[in-house]
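We were asked to recover a plausible sequence for a given structure. The inputs and outputs are reproduced exactly as logged, with field labels preserved.

PROBLEM: sequence recovery
POSITIONS: 374
GIVEN STRUCTURE:
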């Protein structure tokens, strides 16, 4: 008695279906394991599968060329699911992304390229897949989300696009696309009013890609975010000023550095006014030592400096020991921290500055290189 086809070897059944022009239904994929194989077939079996996969791929590409996109989609999926160990699978996964693009299904296209990238890092199409992922994410970011993201709710679209850019950066950290992708994540987080996340993204760009042109723009974006915050927190104001001073030091020839220098000057004058007021308060309370500390912290470039020096001279006349001897020039940040460390300091605690995160990598803008499999 001739055995039923359901007892045939899975790959023999696949070949029979291919010869007859038939393919198993999705439900029947259980016979094939949906692309998951428990063991690698013998070389002759693998060679036979390779031939069948190529024939099926040719049919899929022909359908795509004729504009039969749904048929092409099904056939390309069949190649990947029925013959996962053949070279045709990498092409099928890449072409599936192209078919989804033609169907304006951008999220599915992006995910198809992601499946290709994760499984075929050695392919010559790797760089092209990264480029297409970046373009899909950029297209979505630039206001085309109504079409490109399909049925995704509007409130979820921003987070989806952020996820897309983050995957691009992770897929090819040494590519030209990575720093731009991270920068776009920062912009999207800023637009969503998630300031901490935006600053983290821009800071990541500065730390990991210091030579990239976008580093300068990332620094300005951080400053803009900090300036946009309405706060009376001295530590936040100080962070803003430090960001400005760092930009001036790093990009002094940029025309915007002059504008930031003016803002730094205004902040220093505001800080001097505040310190002068605190010093006067301590002086009226009879705490002359604390008053002297604040007067000494007022810089010579501020309008309050002459008044502060006059008050210091009067305090010195009362008790010379109130005035600390001048020390070697120190940075403003160190001076701010050392003041509160003094045992005679009675003012409010100085802000604790967060140390910048240690760079995790130093990458230059290179061509897309596959990431070695872990």
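RECOVERED SEQUENCE:
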């Amino acid at each position: 008695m001739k055995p039923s086809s359901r007892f045939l070897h899975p790959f023999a059944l696949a070949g029979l279906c291919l010869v007859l022009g038939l393919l198993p239904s999705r439900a029947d994929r259980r016979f094939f394991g949906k692309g998951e194989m428990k063991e690698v077939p013998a070389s002759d079996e693998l060679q036979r599968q390779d031939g069948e996969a190529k024939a099926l791929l040719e049919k899929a590409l022909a359908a795509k060329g004729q504009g039969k996109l749904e048929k092409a989609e099904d056939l390309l999926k069949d190649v990947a699911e029925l013959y996962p160990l053949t070279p045709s699978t990498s092409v099928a996964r890449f072409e599936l992304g192209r078919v989804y693009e033609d169907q304006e299904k951008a999220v599915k296209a992006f995910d198809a390229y992601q499946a290709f990238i994760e499984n075929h890092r050695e392919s010559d199409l790797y760089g092209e897949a990264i480029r297409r992922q970046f373009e899909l994410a950029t297209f979505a970011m630039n206001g085309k989300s109504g079409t490109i993201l399909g049925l995704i709710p509007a409130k979820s679209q921003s987070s989806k696009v952020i996820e897309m850019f983050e995957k691009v950066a992770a897929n090819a950290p040494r590519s030209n696309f990575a720093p731009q992708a991270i920068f776009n994540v920062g912009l999207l987080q800023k637009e969503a009013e998630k300031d901490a996340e935006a600053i983290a993204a821009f800071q990541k760009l500065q730390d990991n890609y210091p030579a990239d042109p976008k580093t300068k723009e990332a620094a300005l974006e951080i400053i803009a975010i900090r300036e946009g915050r309405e706060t009376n927190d001295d530590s936040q104001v100080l962070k803003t000023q430090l960001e400005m001073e760092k930009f001036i030091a790093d990009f002094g020839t940029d025309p915007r550095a002059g504008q930031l220098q003016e803002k730094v000057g205004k902040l220093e004058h505001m800080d001097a006014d505040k310190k002068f007021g605190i010093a006067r308060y301590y002086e009226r309370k009879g705490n002359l030592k604390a008053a002297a500390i604040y007067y000494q912290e007022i810089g010579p470039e501020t309008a309050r400096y002459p008044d502060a020096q006059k008050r210091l001279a009067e305090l010195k006349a009362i008790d010379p020991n109130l005035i600390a001897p001048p020390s070697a020039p120190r940075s403003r940040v160190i001076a701010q921290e050392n003041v509160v460390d003094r045992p005679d300091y009675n003012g409010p605690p100085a802000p604790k500055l967060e140390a910048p995160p240690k760079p995790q990598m130093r990458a230059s803008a290179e061509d897309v290189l596959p990431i070695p499999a872990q």
